[in-house]
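Hi team,

Filling in the usual template for the complex we talked about on Friday. All components are listed, including any nucleic acid strands or ligand strings, so the model treats them as one assembly.

SUBMITTER: L.P.
PURPOSE: interface mapping
COMPONENTS: two
RESIDUES: 414
SEQUENCES:
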Amino acid sequence: MPEDVETAETAEAGARPAARPGGRNARVRSQILAATTELVARNGVAGLRYEEIAELAGVNKNSVYRNWPDRARLVSDALLQYAEDSAPLHDSGDLRRDLVDFLMVFSERLSSSVGRALLQAAVTAPGNTDLDEAVRTAYDRRFATVRKRFDSAVDKGEIPPVDSYFLTELLSGPVYLYVTRRRRPFTREVAEKIVDVVLAGIRATAP
Amino acid sequence: MPEDVETAETAEAGARPAARPGGRNARVRSQILAATTELVARNGVAGLRYEEIAELAGVNKNSVYRNWPDRARLVSDALLQYAEDSAPLHDSGDLRRDLVDFLMVFSERLSSSVGRALLQAAVTAPGNTDLDEAVRTAYDRRFATVRKRFDSAVDKGEIPPVDSYFLTELLSGPVYLYVTRRRRPFTREVAEKIVDVVLAGIRATAP
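RESULT (copied from the run log):
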């Protein structure tokens, strides 16, 4: 039987379910978002139905509606969660290692079926689809966290002040081509070479 | 009325039409290849019909058959011509300028409707389609010419010995993401920054 998030946990508290991370509701929300991403990848945004999301997530349809009355927000949140899971950028204090880890997870997700489906959707009919806009919105929100990691590295003097957008594309672009062209395997060694060359280049060309 | 390449120019010579560059036959061949690329982008390889190619190119169907009895070869030649037109890599003696020019033309083609269609086809159903294989074959042939340009730069001492494949992906990857994500315009200034950072990084990390 599907769980109903609101009834079970949050109705009496009156709080937004997201405010209780780590609990059962957080798990349910996460399941809803994962189901949404999978369905969007399968059928696109236009074909998305709350009933199907609830069924795939194993929750009550009302849980979906109450947590996300706004459909565009649901899609954007789902893609954001997917993007963050896809490429977590940690701050271990070791910039090189964090970036290599970031590229490795990014490459794994790019190779997955959901990753490929989203990729395909994003390059299809640019500017014409809801999905295209959702992917771009999720990317913008996601990018804000990547920027923080770079800012922290700049503060510590590990790299000179840098355009985070440019740096992100410089690092992710080659990964993208390695994975989609499938001419050479994308290995940790390749990821390390990319990070080393790009960081050295950023330092060498600093004004 | 469609032109018939074989009858008009080459039947009596018995030579492969391609052997006469710059002539009418070269133009006809080029039209056939362009028509093929456009149809492949539109309908995929499976839907490709010689009649349609001839019609779109404005030539006799026999011209297509005689020049390319092998269909796979036709598709591969068409994509190769497209790729070479898409990203000519000249050798002006100025490596930086040549690479910036290369990235600029690459970005323009990526933004075109045929470019997007091929891109979409290439990321769809990887490994399962004829097109996927044709794109990869064309890419391999294309890559051989890029490698030459780098070898020439290495010979002149402009850059240290380098893995050409790695270097190509390092340069093209960011262009690819700028164009497909459409978050920031891809300008000549961005192309110059990419080339400068990558070349500086390659030099700084040389063993």
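MY TAKE: Chain A is about 70% helix and 0% strand. The radius of gyration of chain A is 19 Å.

Thanks, L.
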